[in-house]
Backbone:
């Protein structure tokens, strides 16, 4: 009796992978809708039902992914932290950056995505004064990462910065002041202001 050769059984479709992809796609869509609704109507008027409807899902899907309105806003703040980290994940670690290089990176990010950057600045400002402990925790995490980056930057000549945290705090205060001005006056030339501050911090060629 001749036994027919065994053939490989077709691989099962990657159901789990497709489910994960659909879940991530839904989550991203919900966050985009939340951003759009907050920008249009403010945080106070944001509801899970409105977010789900805008994204083409039910309110239950929003609750499944984020739990609550606070959880949804916290996820937006977490994205802001991720954006900040990604901004400085270049060939060199943040500690190898000079103050001028940090400013240039932030200026370029504003130029690439002024709407997204302005939205994040406004969201952080609003959530900083929130009573919700979850939102305050996310704002604290963002501020912690910002301080880590700015306290480790090097001096204008690329050497170690002896002032460290103090110099970083001064630079951070200047940047936040410019960003606050941009929030209250959309016509403010934020790119020009960052460029001017960057030029002030670059080492003089005549030295």
Residues:
């Amino acid at each position: 009796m001749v036994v027919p050769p065994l053939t490989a059984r077709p691989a099962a479709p990657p159901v789990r992978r497709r489910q994960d992809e659909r879940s991530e796609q839904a989550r991203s869509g919900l966050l985009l809708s939340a951003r759009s609704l907050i920008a249009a109507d403010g945080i106070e008027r944001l509801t899970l039902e409105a977010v789900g409807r805008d994204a083409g899902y039910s309110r239950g899907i929003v609750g499944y992914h984020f739990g609550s309105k606070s959880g949804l806003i916290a996820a937006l703040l977490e994205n802001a932290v991720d954006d900040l980290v990604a901004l400085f994940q270049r060939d060199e670690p943040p500690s190898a950056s000079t103050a001028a290089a940090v400013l240039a990176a932030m200026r370029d990010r504003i130029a690439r995505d002024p709407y997204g950057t302005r939205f994040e600045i406004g969201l952080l400002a609003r959530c900083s004064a929130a009573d919700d402990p979850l939102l305050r925790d996310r704002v604290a995490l963002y501020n912690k990462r910002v301080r880590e980056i700015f306290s480790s930057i090097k001096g204008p000549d690329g050497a170690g910065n002896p002032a460290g945290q103090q110099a970083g705090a001064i630079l951070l205060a200047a940047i936040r002041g410019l960003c606050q001005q941009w929030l209250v006056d959309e016509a403010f030339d934020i790119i020009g202001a960052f460029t001017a501050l960057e030029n002030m911090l670059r080492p003089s060629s005549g030295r």
